[in-house]
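User: Here's a chain of 355 residues. Predict its fold as tokens.
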Amino acid sequence: MDLDLSPKLAKKVYGGDGGSYHAWCPSELPMLREGNIGAAKLALEKNGLALPRYSDSAKVAYVLQGCGVAGIVLPESEEKVIAIKKGDAIALPFGVVTWWYNQEDTSLVVLFLGDTSKAHKAGEFTDFFLTGSNGIFTGFTTEFVSRAWDLGEDIVKKLVGSQPGSGIVKLDDGIKMPEPKKVHRNGMVLNCEEAPLDVDIKNGGRVVVLNTQNLPLVSQVGLGADLVRLDGSAMCSPGFSCDSALQVTYIVSGSGRAQVVGVDGKRVLETTVKAGNLFIVPRFFVVSKIADPDGLAWFSIITTPNPVFTHLAGRTSAWKALSPEVLQASFNVPQDVEKAFSSKRMDSEIFFPPN
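Assistant: Prediction complete.
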């Protein structure tokens, strides 16, 4: 596979005083198109409003920074107004209408990762805006909109033509937005920084897995996700997704080194990763990471709602299940070498603290 797997940064697509929208382009990260994956980031400044829109892709949203308010309307459902903060993961199925607002001084930054298999363009999200200069109702004649909304044409012209902004706007001070309701978070949001840990290894790392058990709505999205926090200089065991899923990884914080090995034992990626990088591991390829001294954290989506991984080092690895005779014959080594190999990592799982 001669695809470029090197990590990439997002590029600005549009924006203004209220904030900006950034995306990863399939022409620069070919695995997006190959894997039918979209990736983008929304950054809102104070009083920034991302206008109501729907998308051609199901997504998982993850709040990277700040806090704010999200409005979510599921098909044939009432609006849910949700307070969001750093660490929140939100499943966004097909047909959902969303808006996003930041009332704080700190920028609100939201990552979107999703499936573009049914999108207009493979590897890219396309948003359809309900309002603004590029809103869908600017394309209809006044007659059609007037009939649809049961309003006079003069009012329709004001509704459709009064918002000069597109995508993201900055609201004036004093404009009131809906207050979030705590009950609306139930079943809609999981905070990955506060949720019970699925893996917790001292001086190694921690994992929270987003799946149909802790956020049932991901079943409608068709994606699983996890937040992994690797301690300083610790290693994440070499492993692969054993259910043919792609793994899309965004580096949330810190830095480190990553290696990916593919068909015929060929190392297809050896690189340094840092905050803001996105990279994709192809199906069945094996990936491993080692954190720099300041640690390394990443948020990943996996293209199945309940992912299963096989690790190739540690107590739960496939090696530990194989009989000594098979290991000795397969490696073509003496018995003492096989025993030395089998005796290691008896108590370690997934993450390995520094020596």
